[in-house]
Amino acid sequence: MSKKVNFVIDGKECQSEEGLYLVEAAKENGVYIPTLCNYEGLKPKGSCRICSVKIDGRLTTACTSPVQDGMKIENNTDELNEVRKEIIELLFVSGNHFCPACEKSGNCELQALAYRFKMMAPRFPFAFPRKEVDASYPMIIKEQNRCILCKRCIRGIKDEDGKRYFAYRNRGQDSLVVPDRKMMAEMSPEKAQEAMDICPVGSILVREIGWIEPIGTRKYDKAPIGSDIENNQ
Amino acid sequence: MGRKITIEPVTRVEGHGKVTIHLDDEGNVAQTRLHIVEFRGFERFVQGRPYWEMPVLVQRLCGICPVSHHLAAAKALDVIVGAGTGDGLTPTGEKMRRLMHYGQIFQSHSLHFFHLASPDMVFGIDGDPALRNIIGVALTNKDLAVQGVMMRKYGQEIIAATAGKKIHGTGAIPGGINKHLSEEERDSLLKGTDPMNVDKIIDWSVEAVAWFKNYHKKNKDFIDNFAVFPSSHLSIVRKDGAMDLYHGVLRAVDHEGNKILHDVDCQNYLDYIDEEVRSWSYMKFPYLKEYGKSNGWYTVGPLARLNTADFIPTPLAQKEFEEYKAYTNGKPNNMSMHMHWARLIEILHSAEMMKELLMDPDIVKGELLTRGEKCNKGIGVLEAPRGTLFHHYEINDNDQVIMANLIVSTTNNNQPMNEAVNFVAKKYMNGQDEITEPMMNAVEVSIRAYDPCLSCATHAFGQMPLEVSLYNAREELIDYKMRS
Ligand code: SF4
C-alpha cells in the first residue's frame, strides 16, 4: 500500500496517497483547483497555467506538481484567482470565441471558467485573428477560431497503434492544431465523438449534431464548473 | 420654392429611421422617404459556417422576434436535411415548433399593442409625450398595463418551455426539435394560477379585441382615415386558405381582393419575388416580379394576413375575423390603423392555438427528429409577427453555408411604410414651412402601425431615433427636428 501524505490547502488539512499530482490530490479532498489543458488520464503539460497555485510561497502549476508531505498550498486566493481570470480573458481575446452561436456553449470548459471567475467586460484588446473553419474531413469540422492550443486532442486521440489524429503545426501566433488527413479518412464516429468530448472548447465538432442537447441538460447549466468536486467533500 | 423635411429618431419602434420630406415650389409635399441607414450584413458573415448553426446564429439579428428567425432558418434546414418542405416533421417536432411560434407571435404582438401602440390610443397621438408611453398607461390605466405585461410574460414562458430560454433559445434543430414539454411545464401553462394559464390568456385576448373595437367606435375618423392607401397584400396561407402563421403557400391579393399570387410553393419564391436596391436606403424594396418594381410592392403583417386568408381556424378569432371582414364588406382592408385591430385578432388566434397545442399529447411524448436524403438548398418561410419572413440557404458538400438570402418582414413592408409616411406628410405638411409637433407624432404613428423592426430589416443594431428634415425645392434644409 502506498504511503499517505498530509498537506494543507488554504488552511484545510488534507491527506492523499503520495505521488499524486496536486490537482488530483486536492480533488480527493474536495478542493477544486481549476484546470483547462489538463485531462484525466493524460500526462499533464502545465501549459495553460490556469491551475497556478503557490506551494510554500512559490508559484507553480498544480497539474504537474506531485504532492508531498507537509506542503502548504495557496489556491483559492484573490491574487491567484485574478491571475486565472486574466489567463481566461487572454484566451478569449486571442481567438474568436462567439459563445452565443457556438454549439459547445453550456458544455465548454473555457466558458464555464469565465463564468466561475466572473469575467465581465473585456480588459484586453481583441486580436480578431483570421482563422479558418476547416470542414474538409468526413467526420469532424476543425473550427480554428476556437482552438486554445491545449493539445488535449493531440495527447488523447490516438488509434490502437498509438498513432495520433491531431498534430501541432507552425510556431508562435501562427500555431495551429491540425487533423492528420490520412487518419481523418479512417476516423470512426466513436473516435470523432471522443475527439469532440476531449476538446474543452468548440474547436472539434462532430458533423450535424449541433444543438441536439436542450438548454437545461448541458454540463454547466445547473452548477458551475468545479462544484461537483467541492460538493464531494 | 421646394423644401425637404427629415424626421428622426422614430421612437417606440425597434431600430433606426430617418424621414426626409421634399416640398415643391408651391410648398406642397413632392416626395417623402423613410431612409434606413444602417447595415449589418448577416448574409455575408454566415458564409462558411456549418449549416446547422443557422437557427441559433441568425436569430441574433433580433432580440424582439428571434424565434421567427430561429424557426425560419430551421425550416430552411429541414429541406436541406431531407425532412420535407414543411410537412415532413414528426408530429412532436411540428407541434413543438408551432407552439414556440404562436408563443412568439403572442408575446411580440402583446408587446407591440400594449407597450408601444396603446399609449397613442389612450392619450391620443397629440397627447403629452411625457405621458404618452407605457409608464403613462400604467399610471392612468393600470389594468390595461398589467394585462399587457402579463400577456407578454405568458408568451415568453411558452418560448422558454419550447426553446430552452425566453430569448435566443436553441429548441428548433434541422429536422425537428430537441425537447418535449415536460408534463409539469405543460400543466403549469395550461392550468397555472391566474393569470398565468391559457384560459385567462384567452379571456384577456378577447377583452383586448373588445377594447380596441370600443376605441374604434369613439375614434372612427382617426382609425379609418389615418394613412389609408391602396396596397397589395402578401402572406402564407394554409393550402385550404386558412390563416396559418407557421407554414403554407404564398398568396397575394391586390387592393380589390383579386388574387395576384396564386398559392405558390415557398420553395419557388424567387420565381415570383425580387428585391430592388435604391441608393438612399440600406433596406431593399421587394416586389412581385410579374407586376414590376413600381406596381409589384405589397404589404405584409397582420393587415395583409387578414386580407389574404379565407378564414381563421379557431372559433373565437374566426368570429372576430367575420366582424372585421364585414367592416370592409369582405374587401381587403387598406387602413393602416386597422393593423392594430388585425394584430389583436391574431393575438386571440395565437392564444387559442397555444391552448389547442398544449392539450395535444404529442407535445409531451413522441419522436423529436426526422431526417432523410440531404440536398444543398433550402428555403424556410413563415409569418413572423411583423409579416412574411424568408430564409434561404445553400450549402457546399462540406456542410458549409455558401449563400444566404434573408427577406425579413420589415423589408417586405418598406414600400408600404414609405407610402404611409408620404400620406401623413401630405396631410400635415402641405403649405407648411415648419415641422410641427403633431406632424412629428403623425409620422411616428404611421410608421409604428407597421411595428417595424428596422434593426432586423437592415440587419443592424440600434435604437430607433426619429429625425425629420424639411428641404425646399433647391435642396436647402429649411427645418429640422430630432428627438430621442
Ligand atoms: S482542438 Fe480543442 S483539444 Fe485540440 S488543441 Fe484545440 S482546443 Fe485543445
Question: What is this entry, summarized?
Answer:
Chain A is α+β, with helices and mostly antiparallel strands and 233 residues long.
Keyphrases for this structure?
A: 233 residues, alpha+beta, Ubiquitin-like (UB roll), Alpha-Beta Plaits, 2 domains, five-stranded mixed β-sheet, three-stranded antiparallel β-sheet, 7 helices, 10 strands, B: 484 residues, Cytochrome-c3 Hydrogenase, chain B, four-stranded mixed β-sheet, 16 strands, 43% helix
Write up this protein.
The complex is a heterodimer of chains A (233) and B (484). Chain A has helices at 22-28, 78-94, 109-116, 152-156, 181-185, 189-198, 227-230; strands spanning 4-9, 12-17, 52-55, 58-61, 72-74, 133-134, 140-143, 166-169, 176-179, 204-206. Chain A has a five-stranded mixed β-sheet, with helices on both faces. Chain A has a three-stranded antiparallel β-sheet with strand order 6-7-10. The model of chain A has no long low-confidence stretch (mean pLDDT 95). Chain A is globular, with a radius of gyration of 18 Å. In chain A, a hairpin with a 5-residue loop joins strand 6 and strand 7 (140-143). Helices cover 24% and strands 17% of the residues of chain A. By secondary structure, chain A is of the alpha+beta class. Chain A has two domains: 6-76, Ubiquitin-like (UB roll) (Roll), CATH 3.10.20.740; 84-210, Alpha-Beta Plaits, CATH 3.30.70.20. Chain A has seven helices and ten strands. By secondary structure, chain B is of the alpha+beta class. Among the domains of chain B are: 3-40 and 413-483, no CATH class; 89-226 and 335-369, Orthogonal Bundle (Cytochrome-c3 Hydrogenase, chain B). Chain B has helices spanning 42-45, 54-58, 66-80, 91-123, 134-140, 142-163, 183-191, 198-218, 220-225, 269-272, 292-295, 302-308, 315-327, 338-358, 409-412, 414-429, 437-448, 454-457; strands at residues 3-9, 18-23, 29-35, 172-173, 176-177, 232-237, 249-253, 259-264, 273-276, 285-288, 298-299, 377-384, 387-395, 401-407, 466-472, 477-483. In chain B, strands 1, 2, 3, 15 and 16 form a five-stranded mixed β-sheet that branches. Chain B has a four-stranded mixed β-sheet with strand order 8-7-6-11. A three-stranded antiparallel β-sheet of chain B has the order 12-13-14. In chain B, helix 4 (91-123) runs antiparallel to helix 6. Chain B is globular and about 70 Å long. Chain B starts with a strand and ends with a strand. At the A-B interface, loops of A face helix 2 of B. Iron/sulfur cluster is lined by residues 147-153, 177, 198-201, 203-204 of chain A.
